[in-house]
């Protein structure tokens, strides 16, 4: 079990005892990996997979799942997600119960029954990701929020959004979608394996993690006012009807541009240029589809 200590302001730590109880009651023998950094979490999870663990359970938000994913993707070892973070977009997309106890029970039931489902995963360079890879306005906001020492918590994002809105301008980006090249001015590009990012924003509304292909949402140049006005439509996914938005489908997405980086699952993934490939069925999961 990987526990993201900072997740959900301590919600993951608080849920750990419950998850242990549920797994033990199901006859399983869980072990908590004592990692305090993401790198250590990834290394310990990889060692556990190498040693033949039956599953990796990630307790936390999308960052916890992202760390576990680096160890399990492509191995057949299943991942169980127990949502306890600020953003739980992978759990949402996979139909994992919202309540940590129910999520642990669902995972335990599937492990006991040998019920494992496979979904696709994204791979960019050496990194795996599961939800949405973004580049442009959103990655710049995350990048800036990560560099801010103050304020703490989600208020950092409010400050970062305002700062990035103030310097909003379309960025020239070359997109190569399955070999088809286009150079466009964009506000943001979201490459979706699943639909949601940023804690419940349905940026790639039709993305299906079992179809072997990414859904790519491209937001062209928009004014500050329009961006602020359209953003609430992300919750329902109706932003794709906006004339500045186009949606594409591709297995291989190459992004080329100056001074931009990519984030996926809320974590930094790679600076541009970056190639992302949809790896069909690379991720085995339990406790989903509820
Ligand atoms: N086992 C771990 N040990 C230490 N840090 C971890 C671990 N797992 C994940 N992290 C890091 O902790 C941060 C927060 O984790 P997570 O995303 O799970 O929670 P969250 O509440 O959704 O966080 P946030 O919304 O602030 O990103 C992430 O940046 C992640 O890389």
Automatic annotation (TrEMBL):
List, alphabetically, the InterPro entries matched.
ATP-NAD_kinase_N (IPR017438), Diacylglycerol_kinase_cat_dom (IPR001206), Lipid_Phosphate_FormReg (IPR050187), NAD/diacylglycerol_kinase_sf (IPR016064), YegS/DAGK_C (IPR045540)
Domain DAGKc, by residue range, is: 1-128
Q: Which family does it belong to?
A: Belongs to the diacylglycerol/lipid kinase family.
Q: Does the keyword Kinase apply?
A: yes
MF annotations from Gene Ontology: ATP binding; ATP-dependent diacylglycerol kinase activity
The name under which this protein is listed is Diacylglycerol kinase
Which Gene Ontology cellular component terms are annotated?
plasma membrane
An example of a Gene Ontology BP annotation on this entry? Answer: phospholipid biosynthetic process
Keyword Secreted present in the record's keywords: the answer is no
Cofactor(s) it depends on: Mg(2+)
Recorded hits in PROSITE patterns, A to Z, give: DAGK (PS50146)
Superkingdom of the source species:
Bacteria
Q: Which UniProt keywords apply?
A: ATP-binding, Kinase, Lipid biosynthesis, Lipid metabolism, Nucleotide-binding, Phospholipid biosynthesis, Phospholipid metabolism, Transferase
Q: What organism, scientifically named, is this protein from?
A: Geodermatophilus africanus
Pfam families found in the cross-reference section: DAGK_cat (PF00781), YegS_C (PF19279)
